[in-house]
Protein backbone atom coordinates (compact mmCIF):
# COMPACT_ATOMS: atom_id res chain seq x y z
CA UNK A 1 0.00 0.00 0.00
CA UNK A 2 1.55 3.31 -1.06
CA UNK A 3 0.96 6.61 0.70
CA UNK A 4 1.26 10.16 -0.53
CA UNK A 5 1.91 12.47 2.40
CA UNK A 6 1.81 15.54 0.17
CA UNK A 7 -1.89 15.96 0.84
CA UNK A 8 -0.86 17.02 4.38
CA UNK A 9 -0.21 20.70 4.94
CA UNK A 10 2.56 20.01 7.48
CA UNK A 11 4.42 17.80 4.98
CA UNK A 12 4.35 20.60 2.42
CA UNK A 13 5.47 23.20 4.96
CA UNK A 14 8.35 21.00 6.19
CA UNK A 15 9.58 20.69 2.57
CA UNK A 16 9.34 24.42 1.98
CA UNK A 17 11.30 25.12 5.18
CA UNK A 18 14.14 22.79 4.10
CA UNK A 19 14.06 23.31 0.34
CA UNK A 20 16.85 25.87 0.19
CA UNK A 21 19.21 23.55 2.09
CA UNK A 22 18.93 20.68 -0.45
CA UNK A 23 22.39 20.29 -2.00
CA UNK A 24 22.64 21.10 -5.72
CA UNK A 25 18.90 21.75 -6.11
CA UNK A 26 19.72 25.16 -7.59
CA UNK A 27 22.15 23.55 -10.07
CA UNK A 28 19.38 21.22 -11.26
CA UNK A 29 17.01 24.14 -11.83
CA UNK A 30 19.72 26.10 -13.65
CA UNK A 31 20.11 23.18 -16.07
CA UNK A 32 16.32 22.92 -16.43
CA UNK A 33 16.24 26.57 -17.51
CA UNK A 34 19.16 26.06 -19.93
CA UNK A 35 17.12 23.38 -21.68
CA UNK A 36 14.11 25.60 -22.38
CA UNK A 37 13.36 26.22 -26.06
CA UNK A 38 14.31 29.72 -27.25
CA UNK A 39 10.68 30.58 -27.89
CA UNK A 40 8.01 29.54 -25.40
CA UNK A 41 4.37 30.55 -25.78
CA UNK A 42 2.87 28.08 -23.31
CA UNK A 43 4.48 26.17 -20.43
CA UNK A 44 2.98 23.58 -18.09
CA UNK A 45 4.50 22.78 -14.67
CA UNK A 46 3.51 19.41 -13.18
CA UNK A 47 3.47 19.35 -9.36
CA UNK A 48 4.21 23.05 -9.27
CA UNK A 49 4.21 23.33 -5.47
CA UNK A 50 4.45 27.02 -4.62
CA UNK A 51 5.26 27.74 -8.27
CA UNK A 52 8.99 28.18 -7.79
CA UNK A 53 10.03 26.46 -11.03
CA UNK A 54 7.22 27.97 -13.06
CA UNK A 55 8.44 31.33 -11.78
CA UNK A 56 11.98 30.60 -12.99
CA UNK A 57 10.71 29.56 -16.42
CA UNK A 58 8.61 32.71 -16.74
CA UNK A 59 11.56 34.85 -15.66
CA UNK A 60 13.63 33.22 -18.42
CA UNK A 61 10.82 33.42 -21.01
CA UNK A 62 8.69 36.43 -19.95
CA UNK A 63 6.60 36.25 -23.12
CA UNK A 64 5.24 32.83 -22.10
CA UNK A 65 1.95 31.96 -20.44
CA UNK A 66 2.00 29.23 -17.82
CA UNK A 67 -0.18 26.70 -16.08
CA UNK A 68 0.85 25.08 -12.80
CA UNK A 69 -0.84 21.90 -11.54
CA UNK A 70 -0.77 20.56 -7.99
CA UNK A 71 -3.14 18.81 -5.61
CA UNK A 72 -2.00 20.20 -2.23
CA UNK A 73 -4.10 22.97 -0.64
CA UNK A 74 -1.13 24.71 0.96
CA UNK A 75 0.96 24.55 -2.22
CA UNK A 76 -1.94 25.78 -4.36
CA UNK A 77 -2.48 28.69 -1.98
CA UNK A 78 1.19 29.67 -2.11
CA UNK A 79 1.41 29.33 -5.89
CA UNK A 80 -1.68 31.52 -6.29
CA UNK A 81 -0.11 34.08 -3.93
CA UNK A 82 3.17 34.03 -5.89
CA UNK A 83 1.40 34.80 -9.16
CA UNK A 84 -1.40 37.02 -7.83
CA UNK A 85 -2.17 39.65 -10.46
CA UNK A 86 0.01 37.94 -13.08
CA UNK A 87 -2.35 37.42 -16.02
CA UNK A 88 0.12 35.01 -17.64
CA UNK A 89 -0.41 32.30 -15.01
CA UNK A 90 -3.17 29.87 -14.07
CA UNK A 91 -2.80 27.57 -11.08
CA UNK A 92 -5.11 24.56 -11.17
CA UNK A 93 -5.85 21.69 -8.81
CA UNK A 94 -5.06 18.33 -10.36
CA UNK A 95 -4.05 14.96 -8.94
CA UNK A 96 -1.22 13.63 -11.11
CA UNK A 97 -2.36 10.10 -10.32
CA UNK A 98 -5.17 10.84 -12.74
CA UNK A 99 -4.91 11.51 -16.48
CA UNK A 100 -4.11 15.11 -17.42
CA UNK A 101 -7.27 17.13 -18.17
CA UNK A 102 -8.02 17.24 -21.90
CA UNK A 103 -8.82 20.96 -21.52
CA UNK A 104 -5.15 21.90 -20.98
CA UNK A 105 -4.35 22.43 -24.66
CA UNK A 106 -0.88 22.29 -26.20
CA UNK A 107 2.47 23.42 -24.83
CA UNK A 108 5.92 24.32 -26.14
CA UNK A 109 7.46 23.06 -22.93
CA UNK A 110 6.37 20.91 -20.01
CA UNK A 111 8.50 21.11 -16.88
CA UNK A 112 8.41 19.43 -13.50
CA UNK A 113 10.65 19.59 -10.46
CA UNK A 114 10.82 16.87 -7.83
CA UNK A 115 7.15 15.91 -8.10
CA UNK A 116 6.43 13.07 -10.53
CA UNK A 117 8.24 10.51 -8.34
CA UNK A 118 5.30 10.70 -5.93
CA UNK A 119 3.20 8.79 -8.46
CA UNK A 120 3.51 4.99 -8.81
CA UNK A 121 6.02 4.02 -11.53
CA UNK A 122 3.33 2.78 -13.95
CA UNK A 123 1.57 6.14 -13.56
CA UNK A 124 4.87 8.02 -14.07
CA UNK A 125 5.27 6.27 -17.43
CA UNK A 126 1.65 6.91 -18.40
CA UNK A 127 2.06 10.58 -17.47
CA UNK A 128 5.12 10.80 -19.73
CA UNK A 129 2.88 9.50 -22.54
CA UNK A 130 0.30 12.19 -21.77
CA UNK A 131 3.07 14.81 -21.80
CA UNK A 132 4.06 13.61 -25.29
CA UNK A 133 0.49 14.11 -26.48
CA UNK A 134 0.14 17.69 -25.18
CA UNK A 135 3.54 18.87 -26.45
CA UNK A 136 3.54 20.63 -29.79
CA UNK A 137 5.80 18.95 -32.36
CA UNK A 138 9.34 20.02 -31.45
CA UNK A 139 8.21 20.76 -27.86
CA UNK A 140 10.43 19.90 -24.93
CA UNK A 141 9.83 18.03 -21.67
CA UNK A 142 12.27 18.79 -18.83
CA UNK A 143 11.96 16.92 -15.56
CA UNK A 144 14.23 17.77 -12.62
CA UNK A 145 13.59 14.63 -10.65
CA UNK A 146 14.44 12.60 -7.59
CA UNK A 147 15.62 9.25 -8.99
CA UNK A 148 16.62 5.95 -7.42
CA UNK A 149 20.16 5.11 -6.35
CA UNK A 150 21.47 1.88 -7.87
CA UNK A 151 22.25 0.42 -4.42
CA UNK A 152 21.01 0.78 -0.85
CA UNK A 153 24.51 1.91 0.18
CA UNK A 154 24.39 4.80 -2.29
CA UNK A 155 20.85 5.65 -1.17
CA UNK A 156 22.09 5.93 2.42
CA UNK A 157 24.99 8.10 1.25
CA UNK A 158 22.51 10.39 -0.51
CA UNK A 159 20.43 10.69 2.65
CA UNK A 160 23.58 11.35 4.69
CA UNK A 161 24.52 14.16 2.27
CA UNK A 162 21.15 15.69 3.14
CA UNK A 163 21.82 15.19 6.86
CA UNK A 164 19.20 12.42 6.98
CA UNK A 165 18.97 8.72 7.74
CA UNK A 166 16.73 5.92 6.46
CA UNK A 167 14.29 6.81 9.25
CA UNK A 168 13.69 10.16 7.53
CA UNK A 169 12.87 8.59 4.16
CA UNK A 170 9.65 10.00 2.70
CA UNK A 171 7.25 7.07 2.15
CA UNK A 172 5.66 9.14 -0.64
CA UNK A 173 8.77 8.61 -2.78
CA UNK A 174 8.45 6.02 -5.54
CA UNK A 175 11.91 6.39 -7.01
CA UNK A 176 12.84 5.03 -10.41
CA UNK A 177 16.37 4.73 -11.85
CA UNK A 178 17.35 7.40 -14.33
CA UNK A 179 17.92 4.72 -16.98
CA UNK A 180 14.25 3.71 -16.64
CA UNK A 181 13.12 7.30 -17.18
CA UNK A 182 15.15 7.42 -20.41
CA UNK A 183 13.83 4.04 -21.57
CA UNK A 184 10.24 5.22 -21.02
CA UNK A 185 10.84 8.44 -22.95
CA UNK A 186 12.52 6.65 -25.86
CA UNK A 187 9.80 3.96 -25.99
CA UNK A 188 7.08 6.63 -26.04
CA UNK A 189 8.55 8.23 -29.18
CA UNK A 190 10.43 11.17 -27.69
CA UNK A 191 13.80 11.98 -29.25
CA UNK A 192 17.03 13.43 -27.85
CA UNK A 193 16.24 11.72 -24.54
CA UNK A 194 19.07 12.45 -22.18
CA UNK A 195 20.04 12.85 -18.56
CA UNK A 196 21.65 16.29 -18.82
CA UNK A 197 22.70 16.57 -15.19
CA UNK A 198 22.89 14.29 -12.17
CA UNK A 199 24.12 14.49 -8.62
CA UNK A 200 23.42 11.30 -6.66
CA UNK A 201 19.59 11.00 -6.59
CA UNK A 202 18.88 14.34 -8.27
CA UNK A 203 18.70 14.31 -12.05
CA UNK A 204 17.55 16.47 -14.94
CA UNK A 205 16.05 14.37 -17.70
CA UNK A 206 14.80 15.96 -20.90
CA UNK A 207 13.38 14.87 -24.23
CA UNK A 208 11.80 16.38 -27.34
CA UNK A 209 8.63 15.48 -29.20
CA UNK A 210 9.82 15.00 -32.77
CA UNK A 211 9.06 17.99 -34.99
CA UNK A 212 7.74 15.68 -37.71
CA UNK A 213 5.78 12.55 -36.75
C1 LIG B 1 8.95 18.07 -3.48
S1 LIG B 1 7.54 19.07 -3.84
C2 LIG B 1 8.13 19.98 -5.26
C3 LIG B 1 7.37 21.25 -5.46
C4 LIG B 1 7.99 22.19 -6.50
N1 LIG B 1 7.89 21.65 -7.84
C5 LIG B 1 9.43 22.48 -6.16
O1 LIG B 1 10.33 22.18 -6.97
O2 LIG B 1 9.67 23.00 -5.06
C6 LIG B 1 6.46 17.90 -4.58
C7 LIG B 1 5.18 18.52 -5.10
O3 LIG B 1 4.44 17.53 -5.80
C8 LIG B 1 3.07 17.66 -5.43
N2 LIG B 1 2.43 16.36 -5.60
C9 LIG B 1 2.77 15.18 -5.03
N3 LIG B 1 1.94 14.22 -5.44
C10 LIG B 1 1.04 14.80 -6.29
C11 LIG B 1 -0.08 14.34 -7.03
N4 LIG B 1 -0.46 13.05 -6.98
N5 LIG B 1 -0.76 15.22 -7.77
C12 LIG B 1 -0.39 16.53 -7.82
N6 LIG B 1 0.65 17.03 -7.15
C13 LIG B 1 1.37 16.17 -6.40
C14 LIG B 1 3.11 18.10 -3.98
O4 LIG B 1 1.90 18.69 -3.56
C15 LIG B 1 4.27 19.07 -4.00
O5 LIG B 1 3.87 20.37 -4.35
Can I get a quick summary?
The chain is of the alpha/beta class. It is built from seven helices and seven strands, in the order ααβαβαββαβααββ.
Q: Would you kindly provide a written description of the structure presented here, covering whatever features stand out?
A:
This protein is α/β, with parallel strands linked by helices. It has a single domain, classed as 3-Layer(aba) Sandwich (Rossmann fold), CATH 3.40.50. The chain is built from seven helices and seven strands. Strand 2 (65-70), helix 4 and strand 3 (89-93) form a beta-alpha-beta unit. The longest helix has 14 residues, at 121-134. The model has no long low-confidence stretch (mean pLDDT 97). It binds S-adenosylmethionine. The site of S-adenosylmethionine (SAM) has 21 residues, from helix 3.
CATH architecture name: 3-Layer(aba) Sandwich
Task: Return the structural class.
Answer: alpha/beta
Number of strands: 7
* CATH structural class: Alpha Beta
Looking at this protein, list some descriptive labels.
213 residues; alpha/beta; Rossmann fold; seven-stranded mixed beta sheet; 34% helix; globular; binds S-adenosylmethionine
SSE blueprint and pairings:
Elements: H1 9-18, H2 25-34, E1 42-46, H3 52-60, E2 65-70, H4 73-82, E3 89-93, E4 107-113, H5 121-134, E5 135-146, H6 152-161, H7 178-187, E6 191-199, E7 202-208
The structure holds S-adenosylmethionine.
Amino acid sequence: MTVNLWVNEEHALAYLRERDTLPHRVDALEVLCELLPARVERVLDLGTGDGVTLGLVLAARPEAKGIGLDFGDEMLRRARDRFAGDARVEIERHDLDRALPSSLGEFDVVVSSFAIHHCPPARQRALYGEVFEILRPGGVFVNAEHVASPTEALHLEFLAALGRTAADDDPSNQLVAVEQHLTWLNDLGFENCECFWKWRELAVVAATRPAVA
